[in-house]
Design brief:
By secondary structure, the protein is α/β, with parallel strands linked by helices. It has three domains: 168 residues, no CATH class; 41 residues, no CATH class; 75 residues. Helices cover 47% and strands 12% of the residues. The protein has ten helices and six strands. The chain has a six-stranded mixed sheet with strand order 1-2-3-4-6-5, with helices on both faces. Helix 3 links the parallel strand 3 and strand 4.
């Protein structure tokens, strides 16, 4: 078990670490119309990183539903397994563990798992990932009586996708617009910092994500610099690993490809202003200080 004492901090988590914004987001994603007096209680595990994994947002709705929301720019097929490990820790936090040993049935919040995808790679409008896809097939092992399933709903929130959902939450719509403007600026040849600055100006002109962007301008810039650098770094890392693996056709080739890619990426991230701690936290690698 790896432990990190800092909570994941991104623009997305900063925006939705607020009961009103979170309720608005939940209504948009679920299709419900929960009123403003609905009790939203945050229970994100803020002080521990379990097995090098962190969740973006976890909360209960009136104590009857526990929702985990992830925001991802790349989707791993192992998300159901990661969430299984994480939700156990959440239940451990919100339920009296002694009650589980009582004879009388105790009620626990119903879980719901959602991933919001806004990466640059092609992805369907919506996809469901299931934990059971990771199981060895029954014919490959002895028959058993147990069963376990966990499903994760992946929703593409890029421009042009699921607009019926995105438009129901002004905060989510603003976030999608903001990130879209940054990417547009980068594709037009702007450096990241300039692209963010232009996107902030655009949002100010059209009253998007105000006053959030005004009040947190420098913090947003720092967080986005880390996020975008890591997004590009991971893309390069994966491509280098695939190329090396294709050439040699061996697991060792892929592993060496990843290692060589990171030997290029890490110095570049340092040049872009990321600290050793930020790189280590984002990549789960040991990084030597200069």
């Amino acid at each position: 078990m790896g432990v990190n004492r800092e909570h994941k901090n991104t623009v997305f988590t900063k925006l939705f670490n607020n009961a009103d914004n979170l309720l608005e987001l939940y209504n948009a994603l679920s299709g419900n119309n929960c009123s403003s007096d609905t009790v939203i209680e945050m229970n994100t595990l803020e002080n521990i990183l379990f097995m090098n994994m962190m969740n973006d947002i976890s909360f209960t709705v009136d104590g009857k539903l526990v929702v985990l929301i992830e925001h991802q720019s790349s989707v791993s097929e192992n998300i159901p397994l990661r969430i299984l490990l994480y939700i156990a820790r959440v239940y451990e936090k919100i339920i009296d563990k002694r009650a589980a040993y009582q004879q009388k049935l105790i009620k626990i919040p119903l879980p719901e798992f959602i991933v919001l995808y806004n990466g640059k790679s092609k992805f369907p409008s919506e996809k469901t990932l299931r934990l059971s896809d990771a199981f060895w097939k029954k014919q490959e092992c002895s028959e058993g009586f147990g069963s376990l399933e966990l499903t994760v709903r992946i929703i593409n929130i890029n421009p042009g996708y699921n607009e019926n959902i995105v438009n129901k939450s002004a905060t989510l719509r603003g976030y999608v617009t903001f990130i879209g403007k940054i990417r547009e600026g980068i594709s037009n040849g702007l450096e990241l910092r300039a692209a963010v600055t232009e996107a902030v100006k655009y949002c100010e002109n059209y009253q998007i994500l105000q006053p959030f962007l005004t009040n947190h301008a420098s913090e947003v810039l720092n967080m986005l610099t880390t996020e975008f650098n890591m997004e590009d770094a991971i893309a390069v890392w994966k491509e280098e690993g695939r190329e090396e693996g294709r050439e040699e056709g061996r697991e060792e080739g892929r592993a060496r490809g990843f290692k060589e890619a990171f030997s290029v990426i890490i110095p570049r991230l340092k040049e872009l202003g990321m600290t050793v701690e930020e790189i280590a936290k984002a990549t789960s690698l040991e990084v030597e200080a200069e």
